[in-house]
Amino acid sequence: MNSNVLIVGSTALDSIKTPRAENPRLLGGSASHAAVAASFFAPVKLVGVVGEDFPPRYLRFYRERGIDLTGLQFAPGKTFHWAGEYEINMNNRRTLRTELGVLADFNPQLPVSYQHAPYVLLANLAPAVQHHVLRQLRRPRFVVADTMDLWLNVARADLLKLLKHVDGFVLNDSEARQLVKEDNVVLATRRIHRLGPKYVIVKKGEHGAILSSPSGLFVCPAFPLEKVVDPTGAGDSFVGGLLGYLASKGGALETALRRGMIYGTVVASFCCEGFGLQRTARLDRRAIEQRVRQLEKLTRF
Ligand code: AMP
After folding, report:
1. C-beta of residue 72 within 8 angstroms of C-beta of residue 54
2. In testing the pocket of ligand 1, which one of 30, 85, 277 has its CB within 8 Å of the most ligand atoms?
3. Can you give the residue ranges of every domain in the chain?
4. 29-49, pLDDT tens digit by residue?
5. Of all atoms in ligand 1, which is nearest to the CA of residue 82?
6. Which atom of ligand 1 has the smallest separation from the CA of 150?
7. How far apart are CA 301 and CA 289, in angstroms?
8. Which residues contact 251 (CB under 8 A, 6 or more apart)?
9. 5-299 is classed in which CATH architecture?
C-alpha cells in the first residue's frame, strides 16, 4: 500500500543541554523528527524552511532517508534555532532560546506533487501556518495536527479554527488540561472532541499515551527505558511514526491507529536514547519490529 505522508513543521538547529552533556546545532525541529520517524514506514514529503547556515550534511541525511525535499524552502537568513536544557530527571525542560530566523516569515506553498498527499501531519508550528497548508490540500484521507503550549498561549483563536478541520489532534496532558480547562485527562479528551477532531491522542511522556476515538479509549504504555539521553523530539517521532505506519497500512483506520500508536511509541523510545536524531539515524525496521514484540510481551496479560 505505502501511501505518501506529507509533513509540515519546523526544520531547526537544536542546541541541547542535559546534566551530562551539551550538543550545539544538532538537526532538529518538529518536521525533521517526524519525517525521519515516518520514513521507516512510508515515503515522506517534507515542507519546511531553512536558512543559509543550514549544514549541507543535514540535507544529505534527509535525502539518504528518501525524504522528498521539493517542498523545503531555502531562504536568506538564519535557520530556526531552539536551545533547551533538561533537569536531572530528564523530564523537565526549560527553553533557553528561540530564534525564529527564517521561520518568522514562513509561508509554505505546496508543490503540485504534494497537494494530493493522503496522510498529512501538521507538526508543531504556528496554527495559522498549519491551516494555510491544510487549505492547499486536495481531499486528504487523514490529517493530524500537533501543537505546543506556546500556541495555546499566543494563538489560541487560530488553533481553535484549525481544530474544526482536522481528523486527529495530538497534544500532551498538560496542554490538554490547559486547552479545555479540565484536569481529568479522560474528560478533557471529550471536550477536545467537541472542538472538532474525531481522534484525540494525549501524550503522557514516560507514562505513555491515550487515544480517544469513536469506538472508545485505547491506552498505550511507553517503552520502559533504562537510560534516557535526550528526549527532544520524542513527541514528534511518536506522531511521525504513527502516521507513517498508518500510511503503510491503509484499511480500517481504528485498528491501524492502535497499532500505529505502538509503532510511534517504539520509534520515540529510540529517539530518547541519543542526542537529537543521532540514535534514530542508526535505526532500521528490524530493530523497530523487535522492540514492538518486546512491548507486546510487556503488556500481555
Ligand atoms: P518535542 O521534544 O517533541 O516537544 O519537540 C522538540 C522540537 O520542537 C525541537 O526539535 C525544536 O526545534 C522544536 N520546536 C521548539 N520550539 C518550537 C516552536 N516554537 N515552533 C516549532 N518548533 C519548535
Report:
1. no
2. 30
3. 5-299
4. 999 999 999 999 999 999 999
5. 12
6. 19
7. 20
8. 1
9. 3-Layer(aba) Sandwich (3.40)
User: What is the position in ligand 1's atom list of the atom closest to the CA of 126?
Assistant: 20
Q: How far is the CA of 177 from the centre of ligand 1 (A)?
A: 20
SS3 200: strand
Residue type at 193?
H
Would you give the DSSP letter of residue 40? T
Which atom of ligand 1 has the smallest separation from the CA of 151?
19
pLDDT, one tens digit per residue, over 225-270 is 999 999 999 999 999 999 999 999 988 898 899 999 999 999 999 9
Mutation to probe ligand 1, out of 81, 232, 272 (largest number of atoms < 8 A from CB): 232
How many C-alpha atoms does 272 have within 13 Å on its Cβ side? 22
Q: Give, using CA atoms, the residue closest to atom 11 of ligand 1.
A: 29
Q: Which residue has the cell 505506519?
A: 245
Mean pLDDT for 127-136 is 98
User: Is the pTM for the entire model greater than 0.85?
Assistant: yes
Mean pLDDT taken over the chain: 96
The answer to whether the CB of 130 is under 6 A from ligand 1 is no
Q: Determine the number of helices (DSSP H) and then strands (DSSP E) in the chain.
A: 11, 13
pLDDT of 1 over the 60 cut = no
- Which of 90, 148, 152 for a ligand 1 pocket mutation test, highest count of atoms within 8 Å of Cβ? 148
**179-199 per-position pLDDT tens digit:** 999 999 999 999 999 999 999
CB of 230 within 6 A of ligand 1: the answer is no
Cα torsion 300, 218, 284, 47 to 10°: value is: 180
How far lies 64's CA from each of 37, 40, 119, 274, in Å?
A: 13, 12, 22, 19
* Ligand 1 contact via 118 beta carbon (within 6 Å): no
- Per-residue pLDDT reduced to its tens digit, 138-176: 999 999 999 999 999 999 999 999 999 999 999 999 999
